[in-house]
C-alpha cells in the first residue's frame, strides 16, 4: 500500500497551508486535475463516512475505474446531480420551504 500523501512512492508535497494544488492533488488521488479540483473543494468543506452495501460498493468502484475516476469523485458527482435535480423539482422546493418555515416557527417559540 502506498502511504497517504504519496503516489507510487513519490511524496506529494502540499502547499504551506496543507492544501494541495489541483496538480498535486490529482497525483495524490490518482485522478484528473479537474476532478481533483472538485475533490479538493469537497474535502476541504466536509468529510463524512458513507456506508454502502458490499455489492453496491463494488459496482460503484467498477464504474469509477471505468470512468478513470475515484469512488469519491463518483459519489460527489452523483450527489451534485441529485441536488440539481431536486432544485428543479417544484414540489420538492415547495415542501422544503414549508419545512423550513415550520422549523423557523419552532425555533422562535423555543427562543422565547
- Supply the helix-strand structural class: mainly alpha
Kindly state the mean pLDDT as a whole number?
76
Given the structure, what is the number of helices? 5
Describe the sheet with the most strands.
Answer: 2 strands, antiparallel
Terminal Cα span: 56 Å
Number of strands: 2
Radius of gyration: 19 Å
Would you list the SSEs in sequence order as H and E? EEHHHHH
Order the strands across the largest sheet as they lie in space. Answer: 1-2
Helix proportion range: 55-70%
Low-confidence stretches: 1-14
DSSP strand (E) fraction? under 5%
Describe the structure.
With 112 residues, this protein is mostly helical. It has two domains: 47 residues, no CATH class; 63 residues, no CATH class. The protein has five helices and two strands, in the order ββααααα. A two-stranded antiparallel sheet has the order 1-2. A hairpin with a 2-residue loop joins β1 and β2. α1 packs across α2. The radius of gyration is 19 Å and the shape is elongated.
What's a concise summary of this model?
The protein is mainly alpha-helical.
Key structural traits:
112 residues; mainly alpha; two-stranded antiparallel sheet; elongated; 2 domains
Amino acid at each position: 500500500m502506498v502511504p497517504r500523501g504519496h503516489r507510487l512512492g513519490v511524496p506529494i508535497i502540499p502547499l504551506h497551508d496543507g492544501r494541495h494544488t489541483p496538480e498535486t492533488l490529482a497525483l495524490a488521488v490518482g485522478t484528473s486535475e479537474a476532478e481533483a479540483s472538485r475533490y479538493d473543494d469537497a474535502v476541504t468543506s466536509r468529510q463524512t463516512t458513507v456506508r454502502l452495501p458490499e455489492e453496491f460498493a463494488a459496482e460503484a468502484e467498477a464504474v469509477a475505474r471505468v470512468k478513470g475516476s475515484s469512488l469519491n469523485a463518483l459519489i460527489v458527482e452523483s450527489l451534485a446531480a441529485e441536488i440539481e435535480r431536486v432544485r428543479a423539482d417544484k414540489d420538492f422546493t415547495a415542501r422544503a420551504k414549508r419545512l423550513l418555515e415550520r422549523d423557523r416557527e419552532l425555533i422562535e417559540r423555543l427562543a422565547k
